[in-house]
């Protein structure tokens, strides 16, 4: 703009025969005129705005608030309770040595599948094995002696005391064999259930004492979830109910069933215990993993349901905006309602609405009673 003004000034100077010496004065004059022009434009804009406000013949149509609505209809509403639980195994067994001795062999490796009764490791048994053989030999002698004394006694040969002594010695020898065999069996650590050998805590050559934990066997095919739930749900939970189980660490969700519901109420926290069976088809689920149980405690097959975000609240209570189509254009009308249960993003309406009515579900925050709206 200034370049054009300067060129214009030079043109004037050239036409008037004036020299560039008067350039500064002309520039100052131009600046005064421009300032005056800005002032006039401000006055013009102000006057135009006043005219628009006062001119009733000029009508500007206000834009309507856009909203989305839902036509109320009966549908099924379900309420769920979420419970935290921990995975456990019915057959998660920590094995301990039943006798004292040095480990002479480890017959399985961690991770191996073992069967009930399979030997996992052995302790030294030479001394105990010798005692067992002596006891068995003494048992055979006592047995033979008793049988002969018994036959003689039946034929009325010999005294009763000799017969009774032989019988007593035989029974004592039999008991010593049982004790020696039990001690010998204690030198074997065997799997008490079918499962996986999770860990072995000792090595060959180490000395262990009676009661020392040596290995763990876990059956991952027989898992369950156990948790406590408030006594208020006692009538809502029963054996056989379907639940949804989630294991966040594995990203798993699967349907399961309640396999146990205790009838005993814990007086300390007013709760009772439930157990849920847990399938482990891919063997990914491990004991002590955290899980969540989603259990249905309420269902209404003929409910009126709204998104919770569509429900407003004031000092009088909860309300929604309905669409009134009796006017030329749709109008928002305020209606107070009573809410039943809520779960997730939905709420059950138990009073105040009926099927067929249209409720504003999007845009309710931007409307007022009696305001015209535009249904999207």
Automatic annotation (TrEMBL):
GO cellular component: efflux pump complex
All residue ranges annotated as the CzcB-like alpha-helical hairpin domain in the record: 130-183
Keywords, alphabetical: Coiled coil
Single Gene Ontology MF annotation: efflux transmembrane transporter activity
InterPro entries, per the entry: Beta-barrel_RND_2, HH_CzcB-like, RND_pump_MFP, YknX-like_C
Coiled coil residues, start to end: 23-57
Segments forming domain YknX-like C-terminal permuted SH3-like: 303-375
Domain of life: Bacteria
SUPFAM superfamilies referenced in this protein's UniProt entry, alphabetically: HlyD-like secretion proteins
Domain annotation CusB-like beta-barrel: ranges: 225-297
Family the entry assigns: Belongs to the membrane fusion protein (MFP) (TC 8.A.1) family.
Name of this chain's protein: Efflux RND transporter periplasmic adaptor subunit
Native species: Croceimicrobium hydrocarbonivorans
């Amino acid at each position: 703009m200034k370049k054009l003004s300067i060129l214009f000034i030079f043109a004037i100077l050239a036409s008037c025969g004036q020299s560039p010496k008067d350039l500064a004065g002309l520039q100052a004059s131009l600046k005064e005129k421009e300032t005056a022009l800005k002032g006039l434009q401000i006055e013009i804009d102000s006057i135009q705005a006043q005219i628009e406000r006062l001119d009733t013949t000029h009508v500007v149509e206000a834009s309507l608030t856009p909203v989305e609505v839902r036509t109320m209809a009966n549908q099924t509403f379900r309420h769920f309770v979420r419970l935290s639980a921990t995975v456990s195994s019915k057959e998660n067994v920590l094995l301990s040595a039943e006798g004292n001795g040095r480990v002479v062999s480890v017959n399985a490796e961690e991770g191996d599948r073992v069967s009930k009764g399979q030997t996992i490791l052995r302790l030294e048994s030479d001394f105990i094995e010798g005692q067992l053989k002596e006891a068995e030999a003494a048992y055979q002698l006592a047995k033979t002696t008793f049988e002969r004394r018994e036959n003689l006694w039946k034929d009325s040969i010999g005294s009763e005391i000799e017969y009774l002594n032989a019988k007593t010695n035989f029974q004592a020898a039999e008991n010593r064999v049982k004790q020696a065999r039990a001690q010998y069996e204690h030198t074997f650590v065997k799997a008490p259930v079918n499962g996986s050998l999770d860990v072995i805590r000792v090595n060959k050559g180490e000395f262990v004492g009676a009661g020392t934990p040596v290995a763990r066997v876990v059956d991952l095919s027989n898992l369950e979830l156990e948790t406590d739930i408030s006594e208020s749900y006692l009538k809502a939970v029963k054996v056989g109910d379907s639940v949804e189980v989630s294991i966040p660490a594995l990203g798993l969700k699967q349907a399961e069933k309640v396999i146990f519901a205790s009838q005993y109420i814990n007086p300390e926290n007013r709760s009772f215990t439930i157990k849920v069976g847990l399938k482990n088809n891919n063997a990914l689920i491990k004991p002590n993993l955290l899980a969540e149980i989603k259990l249905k405690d309420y269902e209404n097959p003929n409910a009126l349901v709204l998104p919770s975000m569509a429900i407003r609240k004031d000092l009088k209570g909860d309300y929604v905006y309905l669409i009134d189509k009796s006017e030329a254009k749709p109008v928002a009308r305020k209606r107070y309602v009573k809410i039943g249960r809520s779960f997730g993003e939905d709420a059950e309406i138990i009073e105040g609405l009926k099927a067929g009515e249209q409720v504003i579900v999007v845009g309710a925050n931007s409307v007022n009673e009696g305001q015209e709206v535009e249904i999207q």
